[in-house]
Amino acid sequence: MILNLSKIKTESLLLFCKDLILSYKDKEDIQNYGIDKEVIENFNKIGNDMLKQIMNITLPNDYYLKNRKHYRIKAILDGYNFINEEISKSLKEGDSFNPSMLYFSLLAVWFKELNKESRSKEYIYFILYPYANVYDKLLVEIKNKEFKVLNIKMLELAEEIIYKFDRYSFR
Q1: pLDDT interval class at 143 (50, 70, 90)
Q2: How many CA atoms within 13 Å lie on the side-chain side of 23?
Q3: Can you tell me whether residue 36 is helix, strand or coil?
Q4: CA distances from 38 to 41, 45, 63, 151 (A)
Q5: Cα 103 from Cα 114, distance rounded (Å)
Q6: For residues 118 and 58, what is the distance between their CA atoms, to the nearest angstrom?
Q7: How many Å from the N-terminal Cα to the C-terminal Cα in the chain?
Q8: pLDDT, tens only, 67-118
Q9: Which is deepest, 80, 94, 115, 122, by most CB within 10 Å?
Q10: pLDDT-derived band of residue 3, with 50, 70 and 90 as boundaries?
């Protein structure tokens, strides 16, 4: 059976981002950085929009768990685990991180920088999303220097992970 590895990696990434968004959705931890309410609202709006689109093209989590022995689902879950392990290796215990900026940067690097799935209509939302506008709001317009540094760290981490993920081989 021939597998489209790019689509499998894309679905792995989207599943990971979905879980990341759901892990912090509706939590107020982000306020620890003393950032404007408007920034928090922007993060939440982007997260809700992304989550809605991810939910439209991925299956429910229990489907993946129930069918984890199927060769395609196994490959998707292997990709998911690769991303998770690489991020866990890169983030030290107790390190601050911004899950919003991390998932957003992961998607931006995958779809825009590496131009993955550029011919796939099912991922058109992620291909056409105006990532640059969001980066301006979440990097350039942030006044809190500590939070800006954290966001840049998330962007660098996302680039590192996605480049490794792109080279990842399913074996």
Answers
A1: confident
A2: 12
A3: coil
A4: 5, 10, 36, 16
A5: 16
A6: 18
A7: 15
A8: 999 999 999 999 999 999 999 999 987 788 889 899 999 999 999 999 999 9
A9: 80
A10: confident
Quote the CA–CA distance of 138 and 42 in Å, as a whole number. 9
CB atoms within 10 A of CB 51: 17
Q: Which long-range contacts (CB under 8 A, 24 or more apart) does 44-51 make?
A: 46/100, 46/104, 46/134, 47/21, 47/100, 47/103, 50/17, 50/21, 50/103, 50/104, 50/107, 51/18, 51/21, 51/22, 51/25
In this structure, which amino acid lies at residue 160?
E
Spatial contact of 36 and 153, defined as CB atoms under 8 Å apart: no
Residues of the domain holding 110: 5-167
In angstroms, the CA 21 to CA 53 distance is: 12
The number of beta carbons lying within 10 Å of the beta carbon of residue 113 is 14
CA distance linking residue 113 with residue 135, whole number of Å: 13
The tally of domains found in the chain comes to 1
